[in-house]
Amino acid sequence: MDILIKSFNRPYCLDRCIQSINKFVVDSEYQIIVLDDGTPEKYLKKIKEKHDGITILKSSKYAEKVTSIEGDLGNVSTEIPIDLWLDAAKKASDYFLLLEDDIWLTDCVALSDLQIELSKEKVQMLKLFWLGNPKLISNKIIKKDPFFSVYQPQLYTQNPLLYRLVFIIDRFKIRRFFSFFNIYTTARALRYYAIYSVAGAIFKRDYFLSLWNNHTNTVSEELQLYNAVKFLKSNKNVNFGRTNKEIVKTSFLSAATNQHKNYEDVNLDMFAFNKIVNEAWYENQFDAMGGFPKDLNPEIIDTILKEKNATAANAEEWNKWVKKFKFQYTSFGCTID
């Protein structure tokens, strides 16, 4: 089974991700393919030196983004490398494990054996984590193996048009109307994540590609959820699954960019933050496996930031950012270490 890792300018995270794969994937052969969108070359060179045999594919905007990052130009392109992701998926194994650089494995997994079982049960996606939130895996289990469970999603509707009307369209006070009559609820909306995940899951190739129909070069979670419902409507004899326990974790101590992660009263430039931590990792002053299998070691990051004392990324502002970032998830029932 191929392992695809989406990566952007956080080699310290990518290093942890790959180390966890080599530690916990029990197969004798597997292919790690890094899909990189702008990690400066010297960091990728170190990654390749540490992890022999990996393949690194670069996006069409790679050189442009690296130039902006290394030059502190502050105008890094926000274009998402969708073509890179889809091209890699089209060439990947029938089932593939999709991770992001800030996701790591925490338990053993036999991917080749798992692929056989997933194919037998017609599982389109196997979720490997759900942040301790049962609302994200609400389902009817139809088969339970020692390692994973197969389920049929318990959804309000599998009609794409009705789903769009109730859960996506939010104009002319229609959401308020549906909420008043208890048609739209947050719990019902979250149930649809039982058939969708950004990463941290094993995907059937055709199902993953179907999620990107009509993407218009933008990443839209609403569109992908809608596409997931359309797929379910058109493919009756398919299932979904989850591991019986979560076997991956993700970091809440950094982000790849400033996009979507800016908070009021927090003055933190994530590009400046990553440049500091990237260099500390490169100079062997920051161990990517520190604190493993829990999140990156926050005390070490705090110390690194205090020593650097950069205006755009100081320790106090970073700690405020982390609290607000975590709250985005704990506020709707997720559990974070």
- Secondary structure class reads alpha/beta
Number of domains: 3
What is the helix tally?
A: 13
Proportion in β-strands: 15-25%
User: Unreliable stretches, pLDDT < 50, 5 or more residues?
Assistant: none
Q: What is the helical fraction, as a range of percent?
A: 40-55%
Alpha carbon gap, first and last residue: 30 Å
Q: What's the overall average pLDDT, rounded?
A: 95
The number of E-state strands comes to 11
Major sheet summary line: 9 strands, mixed
Concise structural overview:
The chain has 337 residues and is α/β, with parallel strands linked by helices.
Q: How would you sum up this structure, described in words?
A:
This protein is α/β, with parallel strands linked by helices and 337 residues long. The protein has 13 helices and eleven strands. The protein folds into three domains: 2-120, Spore Coat Polysaccharide Biosynthesis Protein SpsA, Chain A, CATH 3.90.550; 123-243, no CATH class; 251-330, no CATH class. The strands form two sheets. Strands 3-2-1-4-9-6-10-8-7 form a nine-stranded mixed β-sheet, with helices on both faces. Strand 1, helix 1 (11-24) and strand 2 form a beta-alpha-beta unit.
